[in-house]
Write a structure and sequence with these properties.
By secondary structure, the protein is mainly beta. The chain is built from no helices and 2 strands. The protein starts with 35 loop residues before the first strand and ends in a 10-residue tail after the last strand.
């Protein structure tokens, strides 16, 4: 896996702010791999509304070049 899974991360968006950035550690390796995906699910917004859907899919595209032998 090229990412470190996280669960139950509490994120607080300060009053007057409409978004935040949440860093997800990505592991760079030297293996050629197909794209990997994971889903981020937001819930329990308190006194706010989640727009754009509570679940978002993230795709990690590999940065290695596939070199095949002939």
């Amino acid at each position: 896996s090229d990412y470190t899974a996280q669960s139950s991360v509490l994120v607080t968006i300060p009053a007057g702010q409409t978004s935040i950035t949440q860093n997800i550690p990505i592991t760079d390796d030297t293996l050629f791999e197909t794209a990997e995906t994971f889903t981020i699910t937001m819930s329990s917004p308190g006194s706010a509304t989640i727009s754009g859907g509570a679940a978002q899919t993230v795709t990690i595209t590999d940065n290695e070049i596939n070199i095949s032998s002939a």
